[in-house]
Amino acid sequence: MSTLNFDNNRIRFDLQIIASWIEPNTRVLDLGCGEGDLLFYLKSRKEVRGTGIEHDEEKVAQCIEKGVTVLQGDINAEVLDYPDGAFDYVILSQTLQQVYEPAALLRSILRIGKKAVVSFPNFSHWQVRFQLLTTGYAPVTRQLPYQWYDTPNIRVISLKDFRKFARTVGFKIFKETAISIHDRKGRTVQWMQNLRATYGIFLVGK
Amino acid sequence: MSEYIEHDTQGRSVGIVVKKTFTFAESPNEMVLESGTHLGPISIAYETYGTLASDRSNAILLLHALSGDAHAAGYYSAEDPKPGWWDIMVGPGKGIDTDKYFVICSNILGSCMGSTGPRSIDPATGRPYGKNFPMVTIGDMVRAQKALVDHLGVDRLLAVIGGSIGGMQVLEWTVRYPEMVYAAIPLATTTRHSALAIAFNEVARQAIMADPNWNNGNYYGKQRPDTGLAVARMIGHITYLSDAAMRQKFGRRLQDKNDLSFNFDADFQVESYLRYQGTKFVERFDANSFLYISKAADYFDLERQYGGGSLVEAFSGAVAKYFVISFTSDWLYPTYQSRSIVQTMKKNGLEVSFCEIEADWGHDAFLLPSERLTKLIEGFLGRVHSEFRQ
Question: What is the rounded CA–CA span in Å between residue B345 and residue A198?
């Protein structure tokens, strides 16, 4: 079990795990790249040729200002234009729970990317279960901080759900890491992952 | 583009600048235009700001729009009331930082602001070309710019930047001379005019040609077709703004009066504004140049010229790193046209960034002070500059 302090690292713990899976000198597409922290890290540490997709103009501007290549647009539409195998990795970090058609998006991702990294908040974490069981209200946690009426998250996914989803849609899981983040510290979770992990990170491919 | 020249708010001015002229294509080495006609000699007015680095890695070419000129930044004298047309963006410490970059801006072929155009003297007759001036294309303009860039000893440009018709030249540069352009910023532009854009241009041209003073283009030394050119400019200004911009700027407010005049004076502020813009424009611009340049913009069609009808094919030889920028309220070159450029770059595996800037000011937004635009251009240039030097 590793414990890493956020203050000593420039990017979030989950992004560090993702970055550690990316081979140097590869082509990477980051869907929903935000302000481009991961791509900037990959570019400066691993000489990755990256592109981000982000719908928010302010975040797009942040990316450009730090020298990250970015397209302003909707991830579901933007993935359609790339030729087959255009990227070595396509990253979908903490966005799957907001996607309207996850199976179609995953198929597109695996058409344009040789591999994909998918991460999402784990809805079967014990705190989520406990809240629903004891209070009867839709859960609100640090990972899922929204009320039901203002959340961008339209899907609830557990680690087990994602493994089943892989079998249904027909892609392989090459690697997976369950992590738990509390009080700005992150660690990997080795046992009872579906109950104890706040996030799941999966490396998938065809 | 409009005359939105504003004094710099950030950074400093490049100070006093000098307009220079480069002449080439002298007999018998005239330039063969895309139409097949020979033209020469050709003079191109240009200005430069900043210093070319010893490794020549910092040259940026600015490309102006329809009514622009070589005077992008600075002042001609201490008494000069107005700086160049993009002084808000170009200068020491500004978005295009002249402390870091060597910036070239030239007046396009066919214009009337110091470069060879219909008002220039035809060496064959000793009189102004008028309508005998050959039709020039965006490609011809770019070839003339290439001659200037060669003359200045720049073998590879760090970036080409321009909006509107200037953006067309940016795109043309990257497909015509791919090896000479490292990065490109096409702003508020298109790979070919929509029917709407051609329609507005045609109405503007008809306004000029319907003016009896136009006299089939032969008016130099006589009464100029000022009325026609002013109306053409008024039409242009409508397309440069937007419904939202006009609502905010004018609404239905009256100009210097409390009630309607019940005649055909300029009652509304928007009427007065357009009349003023029209009148101001004729003082500095040549009607024939307007005809030629607007036609060149209408003819511009990258997919037809370079791709046999396919835009993807047209950009198949391009290698530049692109940064495409559009503006939400631009209805002359709407965002969907920029997106189709971006789509093409993606299909060709080219590196491309894209940002749609939220702005109410219509097509003209690219010339107005915008911290967002300044930061975007500054950030992108900073990156490509460090990559280019490696």
Answer: 38
